[in-house]
Amino acid sequence: MARAATTTKHLGAGMQIGVIADTHSKMRPEALEALKGSEVILHAGDVGRDDVLDALEAIAPVIAIRGNIDKSGRAAELPDTRDLEFLGQALYMLHDVKTLDFDPQGRYRVVIAGHSHKPRNEWIGDVLYFNPGGAGPRRFTLPITVGRLVVNENGVTGEIIELRT
CATH no. for residue 55? Predict the structure, then answer.
């Protein structure tokens, strides 16, 4: 049973994590503005040029993975996946959720992916599947979006933020 997770009210205060993906070398000022206040920023791949990471790092520490276009620069050296933990909540980050080759139930609270450019903020069982959508060049009619996770000892909540571009 899937349920939406679009509010942070029931968790109270928590760690603010900005999530971005599929910048494809385009760092929008609106994305940077939306990510301000993040304690850490996760980039779920298809970074593109190094200046994307530089711009994000000016806001908060960045944890990034390599996407399918990341063949040069700093992005080419990034790992394909990341195992993360914040305030006791386990997160797994990979670029394309279709390549997830294990069941995250009972192991991870959040699976973060990019690649599709389609925002996703969906609970399946006890796992939040979160895709911040595409923040770079527009793809088809999909919105330009980033995401935010609020993490505390009691759980995780996700929010998709549509950018006005």
Answer: 3.60.21.10
